[in-house]
Amino acid sequence: MVVLVQSARTLGCALRDGRRDGGLTQQQLATLSGVAQPTISNIERGASRVSLDTLLRILAALRLELVLQPRESGDLASYWQHR
Description:
Elements: H1 8-21, H2 26-33, H3 37-44, H4 52-62, H5 76-81
Helix pairs in contact: 2-3, 2-4
């Protein structure tokens, strides 16, 4: 699974899909990751800010990786000016 994450909502959908692909319930993922089930639910809905530590724990439990790479077009200066 390769997903371009550009918002909390797309991140949540990607994590939900990864959890479902692994055949896990939210409670099972909570147990594996050490993150509370309501927090997982909030993240999957894109309704919650997530700490880096929490995100990395969930990714590890789902056997997913976070990969950073340059955007295909545009320069960084113009990107940050428009945010």
